[in-house]
Amino acid sequence: MWGFLGGGGGECTKEVRGAHGVGLWVHIRKGWEVFIRYTQIRLGGGTHIKFWYDTWCDHVALKESFPSLFRVARDIDASVVDVLERSGEQLQWNIIFNRVAQDWEMSSIEAFYSLLYATKLDNSQYSLWWIPTVKCTFSVRSFYKSLSQETPIQFPW
């Protein structure tokens, strides 16, 4: 998971315990798992974005979308820059696997590379985008709306 509160590169702030864990940040950290589901990382250079773990090219991390490929990937901690080669305007994804692909894996591999090559990359810095709004900017109202649509809870009133 990409850490808005703790930096970048597949991290999030660690849960705080003890005397220093009091206040607003503790409550923000507790809601991070819910919050991050509504975000997507848009990347530029990709140095801080974990290829398999972060949500950057779809609405879910690649390790979740392609678990069988994740299990045989040689470098599961690689960043996007580690597996992306640029030659002028051409992009080449260089993901190395621990073994040769089996016949039954070909459709998964095709979908995997189709998704990668369909993802548009630019040279700007990476940023966290808020998916529920058209302009991808966060608002408390949109977060409340997302949460209220998530689970229909019946209140006693």
Automatic annotation (TrEMBL):
| PANTHER family per UniProt | PROTEIN, PUTATIVE-RELATED (PTHR36617), REVERSE TRANSCRIPTASE ZINC-BINDING DOMAIN-CONTAINING PROTEIN (PTHR36617:SF15)
Q: What is this protein called?
A: Reverse transcriptase zinc-binding domain-containing protein
Name its species: Carya illinoinensis
What lineage is on file? Eukaryota, Viridiplantae, Streptophyta, Embryophyta, Tracheophyta
